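Recall that a protein's primary structure is simply its ordered list of amino acids. Everything else, from secondary elements to tertiary packing, is in principle encoded there. The following example makes that idea concrete.
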Amino acid sequence: MRLFVLALTWGILMFTGLPLALAQKDTAQKVSVVLVGGPDVGKRAPDFSLPWANRDGVGPVESPYQLASDRGKTVVVAFYPRDFTSGCTAELKTFAQQYDSLFGPEVTVVGISTDSVTTHSRFAASLNLPFRLLSDPQQRVSKQYASKDSGGYNRRTVYVIGPDGRVKYRNMKFNALDPRAYSELGAAIKTVRGS
């Protein structure tokens, strides 16, 4: 019966054209499927506008962050689950500690989660983050970038968007605790910047 359900699910996914990123059995013999969408490398990054906060406080309501306003620059968009959690703290702290060597002044970095801008401001201040955190409580942007999970939080994904507005790199399962993930991201940024 399980094989029939798996075959039926596979057939439906292939018939509807949805990309299948991963199908694996876990130790409980359940089949889990992760669908991946979002903009592929080479495709135009969907524009968005979201409220933001940084270490200095909440940004003005009338001036949300707009991806289009950074056209002509390299932009790193990092989706993450929650402020003040261990994995997210490790990721964003590493971004802050390696900011100059990993990104540099010509790169715009934004983090996106479902947390409020008030929580973002406290989180950014606690880590002294040199970049903005954007609030996407309804996960509209997260959904466009295939970073929304079924539990109401974001999956940990990272996109590098080039000056032309196209996706140059994406990691749909960024490992915040693996130094290789940061090295790979840094190499992608250097490639985009031509250095």
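The chain has two domains: 2-35, 49-193. Residues 2-28, 30-35 have pLDDT under 50 and may be disordered.
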